[in-house]
Write a structure and sequence with these properties.
By secondary structure, the protein is an alpha+beta fold. The chain is 18% helix and 64% strand. The protein is elongated.
Amino acid sequence: MPTTASRLRRFGICVSLIAMLGLGAFAAGAAAQAVPTSNTTTETIAPFTDVDLCTGLSGITTGTATEERHVVNNADGTTHEVDTLTLDYRSDWSDGTYLIAHSPSHNEYQASPDQTAAEFNFTQQDRATIYSPDGQVIGYRTVFTQGHVTWNDGTPIVISGFQMRVTCR
């Protein structure tokens, strides 16, 4: 006949095994609930004609865009995405001056299971230095944007908080 100590040991082992199996089942279920993915891409921005908002000068802008994307596909079918998009670019203006900028933006996106309804929030800060044709710093430019958009069946139904501020110094 087993002693109380051996029964407790067996009981403890059984409870531990049950707990580990239960935890394993819980972890497997949790893993099935959300599937996160991440990736980073960098691409060259094709040169395009641009107009300086402060001076009205036209010019050509070139640069790179780097996007860090984190997506979670939830078990209920919803999707949550967080992106950081960074633009590093140069604008060469018609008078020989040029601007070099670094522009990070933060974007969050939440979509319904059938992707017909979505929420999108964004913030962006563009910091730039303006140079004379001979490379001397002659000014700075800052652009801030932020906003929120709600879509239903592909149609924007709420556009709120959109702000864009440009400083010309």
